[in-house]
Design a protein that fits this description.
With 177 residues, the protein is mainly beta. The chain contains one helix and nine strands; from the N terminus they run ββββββββαβ. It has a single domain, classed as PEBP-like (Phosphatidylethanolamine-binding Protein, Alpha-Beta Complex), CATH 3.90.280.10. The strands form two sheets. It has a six-stranded mixed β-sheet, covered by helices on one side. Strand 4 and strand 5 form a beta hairpin. The longest helix is centred in the last third of the chain and has 8 residues.
Length: 177
């Protein structure tokens, strides 16, 4: 595992707090948050609660990103845009096929598997531990203005100039050889 920080080259942003009833910062994902093809895997997005966002926050975005995937560009597992500033929690499973647990106005962008939903962890067998950056981004706009079919990278690029704060949890996963 390497120490790549996916935010190292992005503009600085204030820190705020995100916690989860699903996973503890630095701990392994529970089986339900793994891909459905793995034992116990259900492609179930984690429960998230956040607090302390910077003044001026108009909306949030949530992303789950694995920088350790053997792709040269990492792997985006989930991206949600336009979460209203009044919302400070997503229930476990919000990122299903229909976004059933998302607040009105929020939408999921296609992940790197090109599905507009959460897709669980599935590091290649024997590849070693992977880190999953679960991030709530506090934005200074009510709508980030990216199309629903945009990639998470386009979302990230567009958010860069609107990010007031980031709340980060890191989960891990490893598939034995």
């Amino acid at each position: 595992m390497h120490a790549t920080d996916p935010f190292a080259r992005l503009p600085e942003a204030a820190s705020f707090t995100v916690v989860s009833a699903t996973v503890t910062d630095g701990a392994a994902w529970p089986p339900e948050q793994h891909a459905s093809g793995l034992p116990g895997g259900k492609d179930m997005s984690p429960q998230l609660s956040w607090s302390g966002a910077p003044n001026g926050t108009e909306s949030y975005a949530v992303t789950v990103y694995d920088p350790d995937a053997p792709t040269g560009s990492g792997f985006w597992h989930w991206a949600v845009a336009d979460i209203p500033a009044t919302v400070t929690e997503l229930p476990e499973g919000a990122g299903d096929d229909t976004g059933s647990g998302l607040p009105e106005g929020a939408y999921q962008l296609p992940n790197d598997a090109r599905m507009a939903r959460y897709i669980g962890a599935a590091p290649p067998s024997g590849h070693g531990p992977h880190r999953y950056f679960i991030v709530v981004h506090a934005l200074d706009v009510a709508s980030v203005g990216v199309p629903a079919d945009a990639t998470p990278a386009v979302l990230g690029f567009t958010m860069a100039g609107h990010t007031l704060g980031r709340a980060v949890l890191i989960a891990t996963a490893e598939t034995p050889a």
